[in-house]
Write a structure and sequence with these properties.
single chain; 187 residues; alpha+beta; 6-stranded mixed beta sheet; 4 helices; 6 strands; 36% helix; 28% strand; disordered N terminus
Length: 187
């Protein structure tokens, strides 16, 4: 078969101009364009109220999250959550993925449990990365109350921003379960 540009087309992938080679190139180009267009739309739609909007909203939520851990006052953080929420947690009673209204209920129960039991944690943010409508936080954390005295961990927390609120909090741990071991610096 010959195409419009007088290139001979075959089913043999080793020959230039084969249908498989041309189809692969076309599909690759289309897929690349789709990924770029999708990423562009996601980033454009995620910049709530100008540059830095996603980061600003996420930082406000995480400042309230940190405050909840330090003081047991979780209501300011919980007020920033959407009614349908995605909560992922690595351990304990709330281990797993909790989505939608059940996710919102799970993170509320999780926060109340820690407040009621006097669990306090002091976290140090080591890094922050914005990815479209998501912001990734890296923490070094340690217990700050009698009930959490042995807690020493590093966490990655990803939040998803939706307008002026967050619609997801996904937490991952470096130590499961957290242990009391020294932090090693350097290489």
């Amino acid at each position: 078969m010959i195409d419009r540009s007088d290139t001979r087309m075959t089913d043999d992938p080793s020959r230039t101009g084969s249908r498989r080679t041309l189809l692969g190139a076309a599909v690759g180009t289309l897929a690349g364009a789709t990924v770029l267009a999708t990423a562009s739309r996601a980033s454009a739609g995620a910049s709530f109220e100008g540059p830095g909007g996603v980061r600003r909203v996420a930082d406000r939520a995480m400042d309230r999250f940190d405050h909840g851990w330090r003081t047991g006052e979780w209501e300011p953080f919980l007020a920033m959550l959407t009614p349908r929420f995605s909560f992922w947690f690595p351990d304990g009673q709330w281990r797993g993925r909790h989505e939608g209204e059940a996710g919102r209920q799970a993170i509320g129960a999780w926060a109340r449990f820690h407040a009621d039991n006097g669990n306090r944690v002091q976290g140090h943010r080591r890094g922050v990365t914005t990815m479209g409508d998501r912001v990734l936080y890296e923490y070094d954390s340690r217990g700050a109350s009698a009930s959490t005295a042995g807690y020493l961990n590093w966490e990655t927390i990803i939040v998803r921003v939706a307008g002026e609120r967050i619609s997801a909090l996904h937490e991952y741990w470096g130590n499961v379960p957290p242990v009391d071991e020294p932090v090693r610096e350097g290489r």
